Amino acid sequence: MMAATIKDVAREAGVAVCTVSFAVNGSAHVAEATKKRIFDAIEKLNYRPNQSARGLVTKKTNNIGLVVEDTVDGLENTILLDVVKGLGEATGDNNYDLLLSFQKPSTNKLADHLLDVYRKQSADGLILMGAAINQPYGELIKNRFPFVLLGRPAMPGVCHSVNADNEQGAYEAVKYLIGKGHRRIALITPCSLEVDASLDRYNGYRQAMEELGDGFDERLVEIGSFEEDSGYTETEKLLNGVERPTAIIAGRDVIASRVVEKAQELGYKVPEDLAVIGFDNTAVSQLARPSITSIELPMRQMGLEAAKLLMQLIDGEIRFDDIQTIVLPCTVIEREST
Questions:
Q1: What is the DSSP letter of 336?
Q2: Which of 154, 190, 218, 323 has minimal CB crowding within 10 Å?
Q3: What is the pTM assigned to this prediction?
Q4: With a cut of 50, which residues of the chain have pLDDT below it?
């Protein structure tokens, strides 16, 4: 059976094709009685308006683009899945389609890609996710193209953003471990401190150690990376150091899993000799043995809030210059490693 067309709806409702178009798009006044006949016909015929054709009239694509910096592999991609679930929950309820684009972390290529989306108008707005994506959005701002950053902007107040409170999350990790009786608590950052999330977790750890612990000790901090062996070398250095820690906070779950592996290889029992906490609450933390206590970022809620904020921008409910910043709290998910 062929799909119903706008002509079929017009014939069923006894009106002109343009009247159906006016009623569906809301582009001109249509009497309530006529509008009811049209929508009754639409329901009866199961008519679905052609979004591409509507876009030619309304200048809207009903597409929202999610641009992701492609640095995370494997089970850590559950972070992305949670974000997409939240985005889908909001966009689906509002008849938007979600377009997903992976981009390698090259500032110039990212900038070109974002500008290309703007020029071709292939989406009504963008959500940007990833460490390096923090940088190349100048053209979007200059052209007042709707977008929301998932993460903390490099400079506050420059764009709309939704972020997890990484600083609070690291603070809670230290507080939790001190509550378990630990005093010498080490940190392996998720990556370079040039990345905002990494710096925030470092600052939260440092503040908690100064306020709740025995003070901050730089010797208990190692800088992690996205390399495959990140976590092994840092753990060995910490456990063979002068101030051997009784607990380690790892900036990502995959690093935490390597902390557990290296500690066991060196003869330490987890959590009896060494407690371990990860970050992000990905599948890695659940599948490890022992399972790893982790700081959960509200990624699904972040996706939901980002989509709602972007749709408000697209629809003009929020002014482009009225910068909105949403920060959501993290929580400790307790498992066997502590």
A1: T
A2: 218
A3: 0.77
A4: 56-57, 72-75
| Residue appearing with tokens 């798009």 | 25
Give the pairing type, strands 221-222 and 275-279. Answer: unpaired
> pLDDT tens, 96-142?
888 887 766 555 566 666 667 656 667 888 898 875 555 567 777 88
CA distance 60 to 261: 52
135: CB partners within 8 A, 6+ apart: 107, 110, 154
CA distance linking residue 306 with residue 288, whole number of Å: 31
8 Å CB contact between 163 and 200: no
Q: Which two tokens stand for residue 215?
A: 């003070």
> Taking the CB of residue 325, how many other CB atoms lie within 10 A of it?
15
> Could you give the C-alpha distances from 91 to 37, 64, 145, 214, 230, in angstroms and in order?
28, 8, 18, 48, 37
In the sheet where 185-188 sits, what is the strand order? 221-222, 185-188, 247-250, 275-279, 293-296, 331-333
What burial class does residue 133 get, using C-beta atoms within 10 Å of its C-beta: 0-12 exposed, 13-18 middle, 19+ buried?
Answer: buried
Output phi, psi for 65, to 5 deg.
-100, 135
- Compute the chain's Rg from CA coordinates: 25
Q: What totals of helices (H) and strands (E) does the chain contain, helices first?
A: 13, 12
Taking residue 61's Cβ as centre, other Cβ atoms within 10 Å add up to 20
Question: Running DSSP on this structure, what letter comes out for residue 134?
Answer: G
| Tokens representing residue 117 in the block | 């989306």
| Pair 224, 186: CB distance under 8 Å | no
Return the structure tokens found at 233: 């070398």
CA 133 – CA 110 distance, rounded (Å): 7
In angstroms, the CA 288 to CA 230 distance is: 16
